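Translate sequence into structure tokens.
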Amino acid sequence: MNFFLGLILVIILFEIIILIKLIKQFKNIKNDTFETFKVLFDKKLDDDIKEASLLKITKSILISILKIIIFFSFLISLIFLFNLINGNFTNFLFSIIGVIYTTIICVIYYSVRSRLK
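Result follows.
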């Protein structure tokens, strides 16, 4: 049962990662943070322009952070739900066998998904 629940968890989370472009969100946060420092320490920019730029950058960072928080909240909720279905799912998921199984399923699912696309 743990292996089946692990398979479902990996597929759902993999699709969500692709849907919300999770890696891109982390990159956006990094780039926006660097952009914030550039704007803050640029002596040539007027204060009004800095204010408008920082507001735009802050909104972008906030949206990216909210997407990441929603993803991890969903992840925790799924793990909790699957643990209610099978009492020792979290023990399996965080064991060496569970980590190896999850990694293998991710690689297989990614290769199958990329071939079908």
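Note: The radius of gyration is 20 Å.
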